[in-house]
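Fold it.
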Amino acid sequence: MKSKRKLTWVWISMAALFTIGVADMASRSWAAPKQPPPPPAAAKPEEKPSAAAPAKNGQAEVVVGAFVNQIHEFSLKDNSFTVDFYLWFRWKDPELKPYETWSLVDGRVEDKGEAVVKDLPDGSKHAYLRVVGKVTRFFDVTDYPLDNHALTIVIEEENEEIHRVKYVADTQNSSASATISLPGWQFARLSSVAESAAYTSNFGDVSVPTGNSTQYARLTTAVSFTRAGWTYFVKMFFALWTCVLVAMTAFFIKPTNTDPRFGLGVGALFGAIASQYTVAGALPETNVVTLADKLHLEAFLLIILSVMQSTWALALIEADKAEASHTLDVWSRRLIPLAFLIGVLFLVFTR
């Protein structure tokens, strides 16, 4: 009787250590610190749209806004997306042509319409054009496949420095089309903010001191998307969880039937490896440990634990401790699935 109690507590301790190990795996920082790209802070709703201001001390304000029509070819693996949007400028300095002197930061303009320019009643000028551009962004995939992303479109003044041209975000008029969509994603919000970018270089101009810093106006527009429900998550891990279930059915087979008893665990392990390979193929090469990686690692540990348990159960039978072997199997049927479920819930809801 004491032997059975001792065996039971040993197995409970192993299951507890397994759960604690999963928890520790989730809490450790194995890769670069998580740095989700927060969308720019939008202006307060009560603020009125900024009017283009005339030059003061040589600096002219240019009001810039964007209307996003659609997002195409969003790829986490390629770190890129293609965006179709309208871009407009409003200014008062007659010497400026901001619709000709802007660039798409970290992107390539694939198509650009002719700018439509006109004079407004208040004396300012207005220009708008349609743009299709492909943008490169390095997405944070730490929470994949429960990740959310802000697709940022950065427009920058090319010619004039910040002391000459300053961007002002047209937050009231900037928005996204009601038909904007991405398969598996849900549009959350659009926000814009005007800022400046510094370049610490003289760009080879020896008439300027080495390390000279120049700043240029920027407008950052972020289109935020969230995962649409749990369907994608369940579809991705259904095969993995099936492998785990197959591995656990070994506890219902007598240890002396070595072929099926050990074959289930080995087959489940190969199935889990195939699942990991498939998931990794949808992501870029990165040293970040994603949520998907953690869930697969937990499955690997459980399957290996089931094979170790089968070895232990067989060893007990060979030592003429058949009753202890049966007790081990009974507790394994209860504790290992429970430990696995607790680990999955912990990883998912504490990410």
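Residues 2-30+230-349 form a domain with the Methane Monooxygenase Hydroxylase; Chain G, domain 1 fold (CATH 1.20.58.390).
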